[in-house]
Design brief:
single chain, about 650 residues, mainly beta, two-stranded parallel ribbon, 7 helices
């Protein structure tokens, strides 16, 4: 009897102790959640970009710049529609459906912390979402047909960059036609179901006050009209083999859903968009899209024929000015998609005509480039989703008599373990001028490969990402005389110790042939980030190592963010680098002005610093200034040709004024 009482007392004591430990754990968790650091835009770009070479990819920079526009105009998660959330390329339709189901069952979210209760929203997605959405009151929707024109908000911004140095192209005799200033003006208006924008831009060295212009008018969610754009836009369907919409994810974040349909072009990119009209009609299970575009493109000509379509957007020198808008392209196409439960099936096609014949030349790597004036492509895209499993793919055929396929399988084992497999096969004859999808090369052609990706959170606060990509190019690429095979591996571990300190380590190995020689690139990046409890300031330290062949480059970067009040914001970075040559160059991402991104590669021996100041005296006005300085210790001249700077120093000033009303 006494033994039974002792056992009962022991069991009671054990349960009481367990209860106390649970309470203490809950209190500690609540305390650390209250002190959770604010996830920043810079952190997002660093997580998104595992392959640091992407910072020199114009397609990638344009894609990230469009995401920056969405970040600077966050959505209310309690009122955002499906089409609104589909603009965020890292969200799947299943995740969006679960977010809406949670809000329907439990009411409007009071904070984004409630995303932890949505089953398919993992820790990484929660962090990324925090940059693009907020939890606000769910206002009752307008019932009048004219509601889209009400409560329109306007914004007007102007930017100018002033270099405090002269390049050789501006010295007499001048190679550049214009002045060294960069100028940009943007206007946007946004309503409940309406948006419009205008932009004008001039690059340094261009002769006109503004060299490029663009704009759009957007309507969405009006009856059966899901979205319509007149002006400049992107458009993407399926997996992007025919129409890719410039949505291209890094390999550490393989695209987990179909393309985003029609999107207004909000970035300052001058080449990668369509200009005309596009509309999508939704009839329940079936949605149909029609689009048409006509615009003039830059191209180098030989005997009246197009040798190369240019994508730089520069019109500074005589040759660049002669190539400006020298060929026109007309595109017309359509997409039809059927959705029924877990199934999805669709077809996409377009026809494109150039005003001049394309003749890219006889060099070996150019022999597979498209030739002629008229081109087209057609595809079937399909998918099946059942809760945690997604199977999707697309098979395409082009008039250049080539095939392409891309298939992916995504399995969310749990919130803490996700597996992805992406298979791709693009024949050397396949070519679509508007394709954009996961690939090793910059074009969707002449490549086959398999990507295996794993994301895991084995313990609270510790995340692991790793991928292995195996690819093969059957036809000799630029500077190659034979086919080649390559591999890319990446492993990254992040440890958030106490919600205020974060450590991460990343190793990447990329083996790829260049000029018939294998170049193994080993990259290591270490990071420590600290955020104050009140979130007003943060520090970040990065260390880099890049070894290729027998060359090793190293560098360190210190960054800070300080927000002493709601009116002031200071962001800065200081970097030191030491690399033996361009081959072992390092890539640094820097803070920049509102709705802009800045990144560059550095080699040699030197330092670079940049600081951005933002002053917002009211909710209507914003004034920004950025100062950047670089100093080289191993040379007295930077660059070559017209871009050469006859000094080891480089200093830049940028100003931007924004007014909202």
């Amino acid at each position: 009897m006494i033994k039974m009482k002792q056992q009962a007392l022991a069991e009671t004591f054990r349960r009481t102790l367990q209860g106390l430990l649970c309470i203490l754990f809950f209190m500690a968790s609540a305390h650390t959640m209250a002190q959770a650091p604010r996830f920043s835009w810079d952190d997002f770009v660093q997580e998104l970009t595992a392959d640091e070479e992407l910072v020199e990819d114009e397609d990638w920079l344009s894609f990230v710049e469009e995401l920056k526009v969405l970040h600077d105009s966050p959505l209310n998660i309690n009122t955002a529609s499906v089409s609104d959330l589909l603009r965020l390329p890292f969200l799947t339709e299943e995740q969006i459906e679960q977010i809406h189901a949670y809000i329907y069952l439990h009411g409007a979210m009071q904070s984004l912390g409630e995303l932890r209760l949505v089953p398919l929203i993992d820790e990484q997605t929660r962090r990324w979402l925090s940059l693009f959405v907020f939890a606000g009151p769910a206002a009752a929707p307008e019932k009048t047909e004219r509601s889209f024109a009400k409560t329109v908000r306007h914004s007007l911004s102007s930017r100018i960059d002033v270099p405090l140095y002269y390049r050789q192209g501006f010295q007499k005799p001048k190679a550049y036609a214009g002045n060294p200033l960069y100028q940009r003006v943007k206007y946007e208006a946004k309503g409940q179901k309406f948006a419009a924008g205008l932009r004008a831009e001039k690059d340094a060295g261009e002769r006109r006050y503004f060299d490029s212009y663009g704009g759009y008018v957007l309507l969405h969610d009006i009856g059966h009209l899901q979205r319509a754009v007149v002006g400049d836009y992107h458009i993407g369907f399926g997996e992007g083999l025919v129409m890719g919409g410039d949505v291209r994810f890094a390999k550490n974040s393989p695209a987990r859903k179909s393309q985003q349909g029609i999107r207004a072009m909000r970035s300052t990119d001058e080449t990668r968009f369509l200009r005309g009209a596009a509309a999508t009609m939704d009839f329940g299970q079936i949605s149909t899209s029609l689009f048409v575009s006509h615009r003039r493109l830059d191209a180098t000509l030989a005997d009246g024929q197009v040798q190369t379509l240019l994508r730089t957007g520069y019109h500074r020198t005589a040759s660049e000015i002669n190539s400006k808008r020298s060929v026109s392209a007309t595109v017309a196409g359509a997409d039809a998609t059927w959705r029924q439960g877990a199934w999805q099936l669709g077809a996409t096609g377009y026809w494109q005509t150039f005003s001049r014949r394309l003749e890219p030349g006889s060099a070996t790597y150019r022999q597979i480039y498209p030739r002629g004036r008229q081109f087209g492509a057609l595809s079937a895209h399909y998918g099946y989703t059942i809760y945690r499993l997604t199977l999707a793919g697309e098979t395409a055929y082009s008039t250049t008599r080539g095939w392409a396929t891309l298939h992916r399988a995504n399995y969310d084992v749990s919130q803490r373990l996700k597996l992805h497999v992406v298979q791709r096969f693009f024949t050397r004859s396949f070519y679509s001028f508007h394709a954009s999808c996961l690939s090793d090369a910059s074009v969707v052609q002449n490549e086959s490969g398999v990507l295996l990706h794993l994301w895991a959170e084995p313990w609270a606060g510790i995340t692991l990402q790793t991928y292995a990509d195996f690819f093969h190019h059957a036809w000799p690429r630029y500077r190659m005389t034979h086919s080649d095979t390559g591999q890319e591996f990446m492993t990254q571990v992040a440890w958030q110790t106490d919600r205020r300190n974060n450590f991460s380590a990343r190793y990447q190995l990329k083996r790829k042939e260049v000029a018939d020689q294998m170049e193994p690139h080993h990259r290591i990046k270490l990071r420590w980030a600290h955020t104050a409890a009140d979130g007003r300031w943060s520090l970040r330290s990065d260390a880099f190592l890049h070894r290729v062949l027998q060359h090793t480059g190293v560098g360190v970067q210190e960054s800070f963010r300080l927000e002493p009040s709601s009116h002031w914001r200071f962001v800065g970075t200081l970097a030191w680098f030491h690399t033996p040559n361009y081959l072992s160059r390092l890539y640094f991402y820097e803070p920049s002005l509102y709705e802009s991104i800045t990144s560059a590669s550095y080699y040699g021996h030197g330092t670079h610093a940049a600081v951005t100041t933002r002053w917002s005296p009211t909710d209507h006005w914003m004034l920004e200034m950025r100062y950047g300085a670089s100093r080289y210790f191993d040379r007295s001249q930077q660059g070559s040709g017209p871009q050469a700077i006859l000094s080891p120093w480089r200093n830049d000033l940028s100003f931007q004024l924004r007014y909202r009303f």
